[in-house]
Amino acid sequence: MNDPDAPARRAAFAALRHLQALQGEVLPWATIAGGFAHPAGGRTHFASRAIGIFKPDGWAGVLSIRTSIPRGTRPERYSDQGLSVSLDGQPVPYALQATGPHAAANNQHLRQAGIQGYPLIYFRGVSPGHYLPLYPVVIQHCDTQAAYLVAVRLPMVEGPLPAAEAPAGYLPVPEESRDLTLQMKVRLHQHQFRTMVLEAYGNQCILSGLRAVELLAAAHIKPHAEQGPATIQNGLCLSHLHHAAFDANLVGIDPDFRVHVAKRLHAIRDGVILESLQALPQRNITLAALPEAYRPCRDFLAERYERFVQADRGVRPRSTTLS
Predict the structure, then answer these.
(1) CA 68 to chain centre
(2) Strand locations in the chain, DSSP E?
(3) CB-based contacts of 217: which residues, under 8 Å, 6+ apart?
(4) pLDDT digits (tens, 9 = 90+) for 259-274
(5) Considering only CA atoms, which of 286, 265, 151 is closest in space to residue 209?
(6) DSSP result, 28-82
(7) Residue among 53, 55, 77 nearest 142 (CA)
(8) Which tens digit of pLDDT belongs to each residue from 218-245?
């Protein structure tokens, strides 16, 4: 493709890959705001804090788009700011700029990026001030008749491309890449689901009380593989240890929020960590601090608890992929 910004785009992708290797997939805005080293010298911003469509000064085309998650009770301004993500294999919608003196020009720049096939960075907000960079993405089409939405085609691979392979982002995603595109959507779904559940539970494991966010996970009650919804009511904030025990049917939670431990776990003697799991039935889950609308769905708990009971009786559960 005839892209005069191609060397700088590759530098941006490489810089993001380096930042994610150091800090993890999700980056805070403070890190993103630092920009990257332009091959011709100086530093270039990855994105703009003020607007979602960012075309650096002197560039022929757009470098990035951004969707943020509002803080606190601030209302959503755009239709793409919700945390739910469709997993139907279709492109992700992105809302064009609705207001501002440069809205028309910025939207036209994005349309042109789609026409030219420029590979972009999509900074997708997963919590206030934190973003999951998806790159390279391409603009599949702009539909000005349907709420001014752009269809963003996610990367062709599960994860960022090496800098040397970045030009592959110029290519439209072929039909055979549909499954890989879906994998990227699943990753985005997982980040967003974890953010919602951990924030609802005050970043604390409901079984152990652990507050180290790095060691916490969002467990699906009704597994995602069985069309369990990505909602707080279908989530539990658990440490990685308790999440693994829950998925393995070593720990069960009944519809009255009582904790149960499998008989086979009680038969093992293996130190203080295992003893902490064996002691779980001595405490029930306290949900007083959790708003009623966020509390676990009792129907989902009943279904999952029945699976735990069958496993504890030695009945082999049907094969499935849990949360």
Answers:
(1) 13
(2) 27-28, 36-37, 43-44, 53-54, 64-67, 92-95, 120-127, 130-143, 149-153, 216-220, 235-239, 251-253, 259-261
(3) 194, 237, 238, 239, 240, 243
(4) 998 888 877 777 667 7
(5) 286
(6) EHHHHTT-EE-TTSSEE-SS-SS-SEE--TT-SS--EEEE----TTPPP-STT-S
(7) 53
(8) 999 999 888 888 888 999 999 999 999 9
Of 118, 21, 28, 20, the residue nearest 65 (C-alpha): 118
Average pLDDT on 131-148 reads 71
Of all residues in the chain, what percent carry a pLDDT higher than 90? 34
Q: CATH classification of 6-177, choosing from 2.60.120, 2.60.40, 2.30.280, 2.30.170?
A: 2.30.280
Q: Which residue has the tokens 């967003």?
A: 192
Is-contact 260 281, C-beta < 8 A? yes
* CB-based burial, 254-292: b 16+ in 10 Å, e otherwise: bbeeebbbbeebeeeeeeeeeeebbebeeeebeeeebee
In angstroms, the CA 187 to CA 192 distance is 9
For the chain, give every domain's residue range: 6-177, 201-312
CA torsion 90-92-97-102 (nearest 10°) is: -90
For the question of whether the overall pTM of this predicted structure is more than 0.90, the answer is: no
Question: How do residues 32-67 score in pLDDT, each as one tens digit?
Answer: 999 999 999 999 999 999 889 999 999 999 999 998
Judged by DSSP in three states, 249 sits in coil
